Fold this protein.
Amino acid sequence: MDKIALVTGASRGIGRATAAELARQGYAVCINYRANREGAEELAAAIRGKGGRAMTACADVAHRETVEVMVRQIENTFGPVSLLVNNAGIAGQSLFQDVTEERWHRFFAVNVDGPYHTIQAVLPAMLHAHAGCIVNLSSIWGLRGASCEVAYAATKAAVIGLSRSLAMELAPSGIRVNCVAPGVIHTEMLDELPAETLPQLAEETPLGRLGTPADIARAVAFLASDQASFITGQVLTVDGGFCV
Ligand code: NDP
């Protein structure tokens, strides 16, 4: 398959860095976003300015129909998706008793239904080609517990379960599925934390700093590459030693 990547939630943060890294590695990239059109267009222009190929696509990954339209647009513009990076995600802290039905279902709709929709949309072409790669963004909170993170952690643990089982199911079809589980990465997702928390989290991290979006982008690019051609069903933790 040609190197064609769909990165969901690529208008900022980890997704943005991942789309930029993949473009550097020769992928034509689709920069998906939900609201931040400006960020997505700016990245696409930067990639094109360096001679790369990029398109943008607005789609809420929680909605199957819009995801299917997006994937058809990519196929018409670049061709079938050979690499899917399920990065779009939402987070937020609250006591479990305070998690409303609406919040609970929205977390699952974006973080779990999102990958369900995108994977089903790209899979027919991957199965046809007997090739393809899927990288799903989980979190260290999907691997271990954290107070006030119950809803988010439940979705990120679900992503790991989905990825491992799908890896088993798709391996005979030549398709690899892996997860990256980031630690604390400095993006807008951390904006809701109190300011004093960030230096504390850096101190708690054995390598002594917060992660950067580029740290995660390189891990995703590795799992997507031929260097990882015998790796499937794995969770690569990229957390500066936070969870050792
Ligand atoms: P940000 O909040 O910085 O960016 C989130 C991105 O997802 C944005 O591009 C946003 O689009 C997009 N997005 C949100 N909801 C939707 C939706 N319904 N449909 C399509 N796109 C959507 O997040 P990060 O970069 O920090 O996180 C990226 C991933 O990494 C997430 O899955 C997160 O759970 C995971 N992660 C992050 C960690 C961290 O410390 N930052 C740690 C562990 C995991 P728009 O700009 O248009 O709103």
